[in-house]
UniProtKB/TrEMBL annotation:
GO molecular function, a single term: molybdenum cofactor guanylyltransferase activity
Keyword Ion transport on entry: no
Name used for this protein in its record: Probable molybdenum cofactor guanylyltransferase
InterPro entries per UniProt: MobA-like_NTP_Trfase (IPR025877), Molybde_CF_guanTrfase (IPR013482), Nucleotide-diphossugar_trans (IPR029044)
MobA-like NTP transferase domain boundaries: 5-158
Entry cofactors: Mg(2+)
Job of this protein: Transfers a GMP moiety from GTP to Mo-molybdopterin (Mo-MPT) cofactor (Moco or molybdenum cofactor) to form Mo-molybdopterin guanine dinucleotide (Mo-MGD) cofactor.
A Pfam family assignment: NTP_transf_3
Coiled coil (UniProt feature): none
PANTHER family given in the database record: MOLYBDENUM COFACTOR GUANYLYLTRANSFERASE
GO cellular component: cytoplasm
Organism per entry: Peribacillus deserti
Record's keyword terms, sorted: Cytoplasm, GTP-binding, Magnesium, Metal-binding, Molybdenum cofactor biosynthesis, Nucleotide-binding, Nucleotidyltransferase, Transferase
Amino acid sequence: MTIAGIVLAGGQSSRFGKPKMFETYKEKCFYEYSVEAFKANSLSPIIIATNQGLLPHFKRDDEVEFIIEQKSESHQGPLFAMHHAMTKVDAEWYFILSCDIPFVTSEFVKKMISLAQGSSYDAIVPIQSDKVHPLLALYHQRSLPKMKKLLDQDIRKIRVFLNEINVLQVSFSADAEVFVNINRQEDMLYL
């Protein structure tokens, strides 16, 4: 089973006011926590999906590849970014993590991967207190045609996509910190 690790880090961070993936927690940039969780589980390749404007700000790492959205492709939402990155990499599964989750752990990634072994699901998505977390999830390559079909119809909502495929929802406790994401300046209070 091949699993590519993809960190989505090309958004505008409009609610945060500046590129949040470069904010730090315990002397590490937010995006580095996602990369490290992938490395600890030996995912390969590990990819950061971003855009040309943000690329120069990432630390160079020989274990990380970059997939760059062209200017005309940038800021079209996470479903587009997922599809763009997934179609550039040959893998059976794609583990998607966002760049703004400084509490993500290698244990979380390991648990999710264990559910993919021999699975016939199209996606394995965590749920916490009835909130679905599609940007901390695994997607099988067989989900790509449905993703493309929706994008071709200019449908960009991940929830619509999830309703169209066979999803295993994995429950996590309400107090699991892994799902704390930083979208606004006031969210920094969680750190």
